[in-house]
């Protein structure tokens, strides 16, 4: 069942429940709420959606929290690791691939049980985000001009491969490579440089990077990426903006389709799709973390 169909069935079911007589208290709980609460002090960054479940990683302690998108109810999936959980993606085998941030590693967790399936020391500076293709997982490193590749099949690989970024890629001081996606034709990768706001198309075999022609558009504070067909959604974290860029088939050119903001945005970092919605976790960078600081995830209509 597709996410879009599951969403429609869930909403219809909620209507039937109301018609056929459910206690008033239960009726007051909205189906598919547009704001999802995370634990206090959680400090989210990444998101992955599998079925009707959203998964979120903690920058603070590396734990993973799951939330039922239908009800908003959540629970811890995997315990703290002591190092961050940053970007997340889930595959068809219910395996969560997690970028380890300053831990310099990647982890794979069973999305059903929370069991750690594998851990890969990458020697990274800040392993930030991950994308899954048909045969590999690719991770960005914000402090090094490299990508990390895990070749995938039914079994997880023994080790990762390091792919240097070259070509037109420019590595500066501070944070560089952040979000990562695939091009519409599936032949290349798209990597955003958060420092420059530039988008690059990268050959996954060689690491050769070419600047995507966006007609002068600069994606300031570009963080997480999500491609849906020819539309690439770019989360611009500190300016509280979600932009959509329409790409050509190869990902070599693109133009701004639309940008939106929302009063509920509080430094969102990335985005995932479910049905007709886009879900963004609020990292609240700039807000002093603490045990009483609240965090949430907000949903906006897909555009």
Number of domains: 2
Helix content: under 10%
Question: From the helix content, strand content and strand pairing, which structural class follows?
Answer: mainly beta
Order of helices and strands: HHEEEEEEEEEEEEEEEEEEEEEEEEE
Total beta strand runs: 25
Strand line-up across the major sheet: 14-18-17-16-15
- What is the averaged pLDDT score? 92
Q: Please tell me what the overall shape is.
A: globular
Strand content: 35-45%
Rounded to the nearest angstrom, the distance between the terminal CA atoms is: 22 Å
CATH fold-type name of the largest domain: Neuraminidase
Q: Identify the CATH architecture of the largest domain.
A: 6 Propeller
State the name of the first-level CATH class of the largest domain: Mainly Beta
Largest sheet: 5 strands, mixed
């Amino acid at each position: 069942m597709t996410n879009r169909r599951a969403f429609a069935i869930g909403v219809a079911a909620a209507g039937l429940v109301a018609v056929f007589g459910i206690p008033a208290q239960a009726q007051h709980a909205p189906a598919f709420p547009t704001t999802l609460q995370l634990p206090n002090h959680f400090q989210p960054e990444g998101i992955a959606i599998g079925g009707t479940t959203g998964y979120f990683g903690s920058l603070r302690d590396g734990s993973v929290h799951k939330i039922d998108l239908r009800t908003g109810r959540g629970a811890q999936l995997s315990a703290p690791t002591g190092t961050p959980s940053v970007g997340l993606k889930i595959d068809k085998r219910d395996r969560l691939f997690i970028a380890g941030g300053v831990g310099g590693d990647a982890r794979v967790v069973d999305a059903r049980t929370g069991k750690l399936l594998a851990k890969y020391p990458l020697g990274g500076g800040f392993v930030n985000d991950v994308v899954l293709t048909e045969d590999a997982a690719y991770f960005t490193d914000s402090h090094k001009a490299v990508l990390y590749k895990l070749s995938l099949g039914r079994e997880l690989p023994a080790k990762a491969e390091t792919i240097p970024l070259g070509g037109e890629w420019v590595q500066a001081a501070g944070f560089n490579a952040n979000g990562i996606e695939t091009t519409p034709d599936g032949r290349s990768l798209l990597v955003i440089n958060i420092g420059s706001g530039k988008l690059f198309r990268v050959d996954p075999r060689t690491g050769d990077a070419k600047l995507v022609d966006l007609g002068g558009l600069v994606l300031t504070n570009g963080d997480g990426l999500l491609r849906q067909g020819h539309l690439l959604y770019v989360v611009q974290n500190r300016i509280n903006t979600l932009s959509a860029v329409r790409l050509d088939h190869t990902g070599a050119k693109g133009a701004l389709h639309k940008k939106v903001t929302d009063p509920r945005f509080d430094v969102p970092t990335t985005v995932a799709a479910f049905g007709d919605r886009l879900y963004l976790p609020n990292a609240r960078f700039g807000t002093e973390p603490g045990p009483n600081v609240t965090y949430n995830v907000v949903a906006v209509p897909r555009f």
